[in-house]
Amino acid sequence: MAGRRGLSLPTQVLAQVLQQGPLSRGDLRRSIGTSSSMVTGAVQDLFNAGLLVESGRALSTGGRPPEILDVAPDIGGVLATDIGGINVRVAAADCRGTILYRETRSIPDPSFKRLRSLVIRLNEKARRHLTGPVRAISVAVAGIVDPATGRVSRVDNIPGWPDDSHLSWLDRFDAPLLVDNEANLATLGEHQAGVGVGVTDMLFVALGAGVGAGLVLNNALYRGSTGAAGEIGLFRNATGAVPELERRVAPAVVAEAYAARAGTRAAGMEQVFERAAAGEPAAQEAVSGMVAELSVAIANAILLCNPAMVVIGGGLGTAGEPLLAPLRERITQLVPVMPRIEPSKLGAEAAVVGAVRWATEVAQQRLIDELEGGLAHA
Questions:
Q1: 220 and 120: one domain?
Q2: Residue 84 pLDDT
């Protein structure tokens, strides 16, 4: 029998348990708005199809405790990968998006061939933590990804990555392959599971070896016509020998600026920020130069899209107030309406969390479509 939204009642029940479960029959009856007997019949259909199981009992409110229904553990799950310039992060999750396994590996040799082998091995290892099929596999990569074809270009931090390529070497997992820009999926992760939950319009700025951004407009990730939205690292400067923003604020540039002022070198960008927070003038001057460049770029992006929140993430997202406080101060002087500027809640895990969320959404929709199609032909 068809229910609201044109879906059969078993399909509605499955969708509710996937997206909100585990649930009791009473929860389902109240959520869907139908009778107990109708829910019981739909649940039995899903038991017979191997899609639902009883997973225990809820606390009693008087009388017999209600049975709790959950998706069957053997219906499979999803794989997610974040390919960065320094690390590869891989996760396996069930069809509700609960992460069952995750691993981070550094990239000792960033050549494309070795990286490809590492990504395959890590996904094969993660696959062993799923019971049932891989229902979707998603990949975040620091390049431009065409949303229509999934083809990747401009992966500047991986030597030898073939331009305009497809990740067909992951077809071995026999699942829909989802590929997007790393900053986009970090944006998705932060919006759905991080500091941006509940924010309708949000700009995510990834600061690390490069500079990228992702944009949520009206609760939807905006990719642009060819997937190149958010490439603020390519913002140009009309003067100077180095036009691109990410080359003007690269960690090596900031470190050199510090060394020139201090007469000594820092171990890395983190140490420069630590010394700036401690009040060292040379470190504060180096950070100030970086902030001057970044504040103009972020302010221009704010002027264009008017977000309610700007989230600072990526490798430098952990710098905290030594970076955020001067950024807020300078941007306030450049925009008519100041959004909240917050540090990332998910940190380095933002992109892999976003990849899990995307893959889970696709896997759930495929399960719903398969069930509805099977019932239509029954």
A1: no
A2: 83
